[in-house]
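As a representative case, the lines below give one protein's residues and fold tokens.
***
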Amino acid sequence: MLRDRHGRTVDYLRVSVTDRCDLRCTYCMPQDYRGFENPPDWLTYDEIERVVAAFVRLGTRRVRLTGGEPLTRGGLAPFAARLAALPGLDDLSLSTNATRLARHAPALRAAGIDRINVSLDSLNRACMTAITGRDSLPAILGGLAAAQEAGFDPIKINMVAMKGVNEHEIEPMAAFCIERGFILRLIEVMPMGATGRNTQFLPLDGIRDQLVRRFGLVPQARELGGGPARYLSTPDGRASVGFITPLSQHFCATCNRVRLSVDGTLYMCLGQEESYPLRPLLRAGASDAELEAAIRTAIELKPLQHDFNRQPDKIVRFMSQTGG
């Protein structure tokens, strides 16, 4: 198993297949942003597969495909099938904004994607238009319906909680998810780049208490994925709500993940600068043993915790550049 210098096991790799997106969520990417990586600098699918296979040989058991919006890159379903076939990989999942999911859901499910997370910050059409930069809600809801029809289970809804923007939408979102069998995950906004810092932070403690009173939520007994969410469930156990609190109650002591950006950079932490470039090795013809050694070296760089609270201006890159 991969272990960092602080004794944490790293068994979860998040892989960005593109830094491009068809939305411009206010906390993620500026409306006029054009600083994308050039496609020749993207890792090819063959190169990504080599990196993922190396991680799996080193003990990684969970892989999530992310972006940007991963479905803006062609050929994702056949590529996912290649990853799903890797011996030792137990869980292959996808994060998406779902605007293109209606036409891709059956192929993704057939390819071996086990679970999907969908970004949805409001059920109000005007609010979603303001957040995402386009009239996105109908396409997202259509994508969710297609995902359910294709047999994805569970489907998690990621909602970034923003003070003065969508805090009044949280209770209706919880009711929507409970009724439809989705798992709602509320996320505190992180000060990544100017977009993240310009979004009003909303701590989730009060929201948790509000939802406990409204829906009678109780502590969740079972694990729901390998991430940092702390879950509560409805009394009958049929629905769950998770809380991801990187600022108010950080979970750095149990962090089990690293991120591979589309240009082949391994990022050790969202809130720190430690990184390791793998693309030069891959394109110089590195052997599998050399690639595995580089990954082990990179994991040793993983810091103890982020600096979002003490140095909120530290990270200038946007979330889409790192990979969600």
Summary: Residues 310 and 321 are 22 Å apart (CA to CA). The two ends are 24 Å apart (CA to CA). The chain has a mean pLDDT of 90.
